[in-house]
Design a protein that fits this description.
Blueprint (H helix, E strand, L loop, with lengths): L1 H4 L1 H7 L3 E4 L2 H5 L7 E2 H4 L5 E6 L5 E5 L2 E5 L5 E3 L5 E8 L5 E5 L5 H15 L4 E18 L9 H8 E18 L10 E8 L5 E19 L2 E4 L4 H5 L7 H9 L3
Parallel strand pairs: 1-13
Antiparallel strand pairs: 1-7, 2-7, 3-4, 3-7, 4-5, 5-6, 8-12, 9-10, 9-12, 10-11, 11-12
GO biological process, one term: acetoin biosynthetic process
Pfam families: AAL_decarboxy (PF03306)
Family: Belongs to the alpha-acetolactate decarboxylase family.
């Protein structure tokens, strides 16, 4: 009833996840920039995504935006750099979880899934995990040139993988419920940035010594669609479930 009686108070109640474009659009090869880093920072201080022309994975942490280059190194993005796809939010005080040793990303995913089941699996979640890692396996992509190929082809040819060992850093984790698959990845999506902000990427696997997670739950989601003709012409319904899963698993 708060929304009916006091919409302003309702809007201030919880931070939304803001998203630019859809995952289907990315899968179908629409890598044209739909916004800028400067504009994206208006909507969040934590997030993940991809830059124009699939030119590197995007990590937003502490209100600073980084591009992951082909060798796994991180570079602070310029305000005018264009972004093709991203999910961001403002991280607030929330549930904290002390984490012991985690032998894999699946182990962490399972623990987070348990918390989501308790709190409500049809909501959306943002999690930051600060930890000490024995190993982080990650990836980025190389810049593409138009006419753009579908993302599965990009992963097969221009995905670059790397492993970081004995490193401290942060996992940026976003959860979308099953009914939003295609709009984003159903389940968890993980990116990593080290404490020195020198390396990172889209995460496949981890081995963590210890860590601490901060979890935010939200029931608010805001999305802006691209304005380019490529988006209007794309047959988004043709993005298959296998291609959606490949976003997480990679091409190799």
């Amino acid at each position: 009833m708060d929304f009916l009686t006091s919409p302003v108070r309702y809007l201030k109640k919880k931070q939304p996840i803001y998203q630019i474009s859809t995952l289907q659009s990315l899968i179908m090869g629409n890598y044209y920039g739909a916004t800028t880093v400067e504009q994206l920072l208006r909507f969040g201080d934590i997030g993940l995504g991809m830059f124009h022309a699939a030119d590197g994975e995007l990590i937003l942490l502490n209100h600073r935006c980084y591009r992951i280059l082909g060798d796994g190194s991180a570079r602070l993005a310029a305000m005018e750099d264009r972004v093709t796809f991203a999910s961001v939010s403002f991280l607030e005080e929330g549930d904290t979880i002390s984490l012991g040793a985690m032998e894999s990303l699946d182990a962490l995913r399972g623990l987070l899934d348990e918390r989501v089941e308790l709190l409500g699996a049809n909501n959306l979640y943002i999690v930051r995990v600060d930890g000490v890692f024995h190993r982080v396996a990650a990836r980025t992509e190389l810049k593409q040139e138009p006419p753009f190929k579908k993302f599965a082809e990009v992963l097969a040819k221009d995905e670059r993988r790397f492993v970081f060992e004995n490193i401290s850093g942060s996992l940026v984790c976003f959860y979308f419920p099953q009914y939003l698959e295609g709009v984003n990845t159903a389940g968890w999506h993980f990116h990593f940035l080290d404490d020195a902000c020198t390396c990172g990427g889209h995460v496949f696997d981890i081995e963590m010594e210890r860590g601490k997670a901060l979890l935010n739950k939200t029931d608010r989601f805001v999305m802006d669609l691209p304005h380019n003709q490529e988006f209007q012409d794309a047959a988004l319904e043709n993005a298959s479930k296998d291609e959606i899963r490949q976003i997480e698993q990679g091409g190799k």
